[in-house]
């Protein structure tokens, strides 16, 4: 089992392992102990009271974080005719149809973070399911990436829209900012994500819904948050 470096170990010593911190205090601490020299991403892991094995307890969607993630995301749009110009004017990095599908199929090109498609393109884009699906890049109506309103979709991604999906362990992982962000901005992003998850709570989910929240930086230790305060 690999050992953590000295910087990580020093950072860990500053975090009380079994303590549930207040949200602002937790994020201040994450920023303080981030051990890397680069601007680390602040991430959150939210454990939900759902059983992902059941279709009626799946939690998936998208949300625009008010302060963005601090990362510039590259957008590919599958579109034709007037929607091509619309996507380009909105700031899409790549726009195309058959040419883009062929580039991905034959060259293995994946130089984008988000793919958006107009509904009439999904018959063509569907051929890429085996390539894009496992990587979480397949356009999906549930995340707002299959739409005729490509301009708005592109602008939302550029503004800080993220997708979320509960994993097999019932946990939602998401980026909520950078260590260089003001703590207040990260707090606002986190609250927006939590409020969204509460709003889309499956009717079949019983008992406590938000069961655990842990924040961390890319290279730093996790800090647990008091869930009673975060959902209040």
UniProtKB/TrEMBL annotation:
Q: Which GO terms describe its cellular component?
A: large ribosomal subunit
Kindly list the GO molecular function terms attached to this UniProt entry.
rRNA binding; structural constituent of ribosome; tRNA binding
An annotated GO BP:
translation
Identify the Pfam families for this entry: Ribosomal_L1
Which CDD domains does the UniProt entry name for this protein?
Ribosomal_L1
Alphabetical keyword list: Repressor, Ribonucleoprotein, Ribosomal protein, RNA-binding, rRNA-binding, Translation regulation, tRNA-binding
List, alphabetically, the InterPro entries matched.
Ribosom_uL1_bac-type, Ribosomal_uL1, Ribosomal_uL1-like, Ribosomal_uL1/biogenesis, Ribosomal_uL1_3-a/b-sand, Ribosomal_uL1_CS
Domain of life per record: Bacteria
The record describes the protein's role as:
Binds directly to 23S rRNA. The L1 stalk is quite mobile in the ribosome, and is involved in E site tRNA release.
> In which family does this protein belong, per the annotation?
Belongs to the universal ribosomal protein uL1 family.
Entry-linked HAMAP family: Ribosomal_uL1_B (MF_01318_B)
Q: How does it associate, per the subunit comment?
A: Part of the 50S ribosomal subunit.
What's the protein name? Large ribosomal subunit protein uL1
Organism encoding this protein: Desulfofarcimen acetoxidans (strain ATCC 49208 / DSM 771 / KCTC 5769 / VKM B-1644 / 5575) (Desulfotomaculum acetoxidans)
């Amino acid at each position: 089992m690999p050992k953590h470096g000295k910087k990580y170990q020093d950072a860990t010593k500053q975090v009380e392992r079994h303590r549930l911190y207040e949200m602002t205090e937790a994020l201040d601490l994450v920023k303080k102990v981030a051990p890397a020299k680069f601007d680390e991403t602040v991430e959150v892991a939210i454990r939900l009271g759902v059983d992902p094995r059941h279709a009626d307890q799946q939690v998936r969607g998208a949300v625009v974080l008010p302060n963005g993630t601090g990362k510039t995301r590259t957008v590919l749009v599958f579109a034709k005719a007037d929607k091509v110009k619309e996507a380009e004017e909105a700031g899409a990095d790549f726009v195309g149809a058959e040419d883009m599908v062929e580039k991905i199929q034959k060259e293995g090109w994946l130089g984008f973070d988000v793919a958006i498609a107009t509904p009439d393109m999904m018959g063509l884009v569907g051929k890429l399911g085996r390539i894009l699906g496992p990587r979480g890049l397949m356009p999906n109506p549930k995340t707002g990436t299959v739409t005729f309103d490509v301009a708005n979709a592109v602008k939302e991604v550029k503004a800080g829209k993220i997708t979320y999906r509960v994993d097999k362990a019932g946990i939602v992982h998401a980026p909520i900012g950078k260590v260089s962000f003001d703590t207040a901005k990260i707090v606002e992003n986190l609250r927006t994500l939590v409020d969204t998850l509460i709003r889309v709570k499956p009717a079949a989910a019983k008992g406590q819904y938000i069961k655990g929240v842990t924040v961390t930086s890319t290279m730093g230790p996790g800090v647990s948050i008091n869930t009673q305060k975060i959902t209040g």
